[in-house]
Amino acid sequence: MLETRQALIAAGMAAFGEGGLDAPSLDSICERAGYTRGAFYVHFKDRDDFIVAVMDQLTEGFIGSILGGPVGGEGSPADLAALVARFAQAVSIGAYPLPGAVRLHHILDACSRSDVVRARRARLLRDSMDLVGEYARDSQRRGKLRADVDPGQLGALSIAIVLGIEVLTELSVPFGATGAAGTVMDLLRPASAASPGPEGEKPKPRRATAPRAKRS
Predict the structure, then answer these.
(1) Would you say the pTM of this structure is higher than 0.70?
(2) pLDDT tens-digit profile of 2-26?
């Protein structure tokens, strides 16, 4: 039973990635998966329920690849900087937005028509905000993030940036993900945890200079 559901979701991911959320018929998706419409309705109430399942699969797969597991779990990033670096790398190599996945404008269009799809998409975004907030709190406990930063607000801002990157990508606007990620982390690090110089040395403090005498 689980194998049938996963096959249908995989077929939906491929079909939606190629033609958007509206174009592929359920019959074509079922045929692609090698199952009948009867098998489809065993696992999904309707098309909206199926779209939600596809969104969940895509989101969970991406979050798993970037986060590497729960906060503090084996294989998870050590702190927020590691999380940001992983995401920037994914953008730089074209792994985000996910190749072949449903584009953002298709998802927003589906959300405008379906309360079910909109509610689930909003929940996924809120969960992502909370998860980034957990990484921020963990980084603060480690002394690697400024103590005056609100983890919840940072989580919300981070997801807004992610959505903005999707828009830039769809419009083919050049975006230096690695440089932007470095700038963000420079703003968030405590002064005592400044980035090391090019040779691994911490930047030296500037010498105080005496004020110049005024010319008479």
Answers:
(1) yes
(2) 899 999 999 998 898 888 888 889 9
pLDDT tens-place string over residues 60-92: 777 766 765 444 444 444 578 888 988 999 899
DSSP letter string, 103-143: PHHHHHHHHHH-HHHHHHHHHHHHHHHHHHHHHHHHHHHTT
What letter does residue 144 receive in the DSSP assignment?
A: -
**Spatial separation of the C-alpha atoms in residues 35 and 200, rounded to whole Å:** 58
Residues with Cβ within 8 Å of 172's Cβ and at least 6 positions away in sequence, in order, are none
- Written as one letter, the residue type at 193 is A
Tokens 């769809």 — which residue? 170
Q: Is the dihedral of CA 80, 81, 86, 92 positive or negative?
A: positive
